[in-house]
Amino acid sequence: MVAKINTDEAKKILSEENCVLLDVRTEEEYSLDKINPSVHLDLFDDFEKKIGNLDKEKKYLVLCRSGNRSRVATSILRDEGFEAYNVEGGILDW
Question: Could you give the residue numbers annotated as active site?
């Protein structure tokens, strides 16, 4: 089971110094509508390779359009030892 939070919880947690909003939508989606500050890593563009550049000391709130891709990304991150949470409802609920 993937750790999850809702958008209200995510907004509160983002104020923590060690927290990063990770957007896993496509480049096109991200360019049209994004939340600042956020880090963008497209789930379908060498995601597993690129997460090696992320800091494992940080907490990641993972966001996509509706919560499906971010659930997959969160699972991958947690399997690799990251503290990561799926933002349910994604940017649609934000």
Answer: 64
Cβ atoms of 12 and 41 closer than 8 Å: no
| Domains of the chain listed by start with CATH number | 4-93 (3.40.250.10)
Burial of 63 by CB count in 10 Å (0-12 exposed, 13-18 middle, 19+ buried)?
buried
pTM of the predicted model as reported, rounded to 2 decimal places: 0.95
Q: What is the pLDDT of residues 13-63, one digit of tens each?
A: 998 889 999 999 999 999 999 999 999 999 999 999 999 999 999 999 999
d(CA 35, CA 49): 24
